[in-house]
Amino acid sequence: MKFFHLATLAAAALAFPSDNSLAQRKTCTTPKVRKSWAKATAAEKRSYINAVLCLPTKPSRLHVSTHSTLYDDFGYIHAQLSAPQRIHGEPVFLPWHRYFVQVYEDALRSCGYTGAAMYWDWVADSAAPSKAAVWDPVLGFGGNGSDTDVTNGPGKLRVVNGPFRNLKPTYWNAAVDPHYLSRDWAPGHPEGNQAEMIGNAYSPSVMDEVNSWTVYEKFHPALESSPHGAVHAGVGGGRGDMGPTSSPNDPIFFLHHTMVDRVWWQWQQREPQNRTFAYKGVRNDGQNATLSDVMPMLGLAPDAVVRDYMDTKGGTLCYTY
C-alpha cells in the first residue's frame, strides 16, 4: 500500500492561506451537477449501473484477500476505519465520506462512467421508502432480500431481483465472508409509531430539526444519528449489507451518502461565508478537530486533509447539486 507521508500533508496544508474565505479559494468553472436518481434519465441510470457492475472485474488496489476486487476495497476500507471508529461519531464523518464518495465516483469513471455521483432523496421518499425509484428491478438497485432464498444461509437475506442480484461481496464487517448482496428492510410497526424502513426518522420534519442547528459541532452529529443511521438500519436491518461496517458492499450506500453530502452542502450554502469551512468539535482521540486533520484512505486513494474537502467548488472538488 502507498501512503502519503504526514509531513507532505502538513506542507500541503500550510500552502493554503490561514484565512479560508471563499475569495481566496480556487474555484472550478464547470462543476458537475449531482442529481437525484428519481430524476435521472434511463440512459444515465443504465450507464451508472453498468459502471458499478464493472468494478468487480477490476483488480483490488489493496490485495488483502485473493477473493477481493476493486469493488470490495470500498467495503474493506470502511470496515477497517470503523473498528476502532475513525470516521464515525466525530467531526470528520462528513468530510471523510465526501472524499470517499469522490473516490468511488472516480472509480466508476475508470469503468467508462462520465456522469456525476447521484443520490437517493430519502427525505422525499420517507413516507413510503419501499416505493422509491432506487429499488426498481430494471433501472434501479433491486429490492429487498428474500426470506425464501437460502443461498446465503440464515444470517443474510439475498437480493433476488435487479441488476445486482448476482453481486457477491467478499467482506462482512472486516472478515472474509463471500456472500450474495443482502438486504433486510425494517418492517413498519404502526402500533409503535414505527414506519417502514424507519422512514419517520428521516422525514421532512426531522430534517427541519437537523438543519435548525447553526454550528457544525451540533449539526454533524444530528445529521449522522437519526437520518443517516436510520437509513442504514432501515435498509440493512440485521441481515443486510447496509447494517455491518462493510456497508459499502451495497451499491445503495453511495447514493445514500451522496444524499448525506447534499444535506451538508445545503446547510453550507445557507451561509457560505460562515459555513463552508465550519469544522469544529472533539475527535475520538480526545483532540480538537482542525482543518488540517488527515483523512486516511489506507491505500485505496491518497490520504487527504479535511480543508481540501470542505468546498465542493474549490480545493480538489468540482461539483454542485
From TrEMBL:
Q: Give the protein's recorded name.
A: Monooxygenase
Kindly give the Pfam families that the UniProt entry links to this protein: Tyrosinase (PF00264)
Keywords (A to Z) from UniProt:
Copper, Metal-binding, Monooxygenase, Oxidoreductase, Signal
Keyword Zinc-finger attributed:
no
Please report the stretch or stretches of sequence annotated as the Tyrosinase copper-binding domain: 88-105, 250-261
Q: Is Oxidoreductase included in the keywords of this UniProt record?
A: yes
GO MF: metal ion binding; monooxygenase activity
The secretion signal range is 1-23
